[in-house]
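This part of the workshop introduces the protein records we will be handling. To make this concrete, we reproduce a full record directly below.
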Amino acid sequence: MARSGTQSLERGAQLLRELAARGTVGWRLSELARRCGLDKGTAHRMIGCFVRERLARQRADRRYVPGPLLYELSLALPAYAAFQSDATAHLEEAARKLRAHAFLCLRSGADFVCAANAGVSSVKGLAHEVGLRRPLAVSAGGAAILVALPGDEAAGLVADNLRRIEAAGEVRLRAVDRMLRRSRAHGFGIHLGDIVPRVNTYGVAIRLAGAPFASVSLAARAEDLPPSRLPQVLGALEEGARRIAADAARLLS
């Protein structure tokens, strides 16, 4: 809920998050307004301001996407660039060992953002592109973070996520619920073709100062990464998580 005196800032932050969620596809104004719960006039004024300030830009197809000022501002955080580089090296090692695709997801409120990936796959839907933003509950990496959070906090985030994805229909909601239940039972993220058919993904949380701030995951075709390989998979994930946590403590604390 928006807090008194900060509604405009919170609306602006929400709009920027939604722009980032579809950084490649972009948004039509009417879609963006509906997504943010704004009337079209308000959305038009806000996005117009963002375009003038270069926080957003409008492409030739009239869709809105993130603007260059966001990248320029990120240059003020060199420690995060170093963290991303070091994490990518750890992911490459894990991907090579398991012949899988590895990726690092950072928690961003009720979402995850893919910060790094490694490995090559021709399987559609298997890899997360860097910058991808989605609700925590729709991936094994996000589920790993949810499982590691206190129960009440996790329940609130799951409820938020389910409200946001309910438009995808009952089949998707049941798939997400199935994956979350399995992940809670195992104590880590585990997706067995639930949301992306014929793809298995496993994820473990990464903690910084005791709190789960990220996750590392491995994904491959179901036949290449079956549950029978769990000991090997978890060994690689836990080693990767340990190394990335050490980098985070060194660079981001």
Notes: The chain is about 50% helix and 20% strand. Residues 7-72 form a domain with the Arc Repressor Mutant, subunit A fold (CATH 1.10.10.10). The radius of gyration is 19 Å.
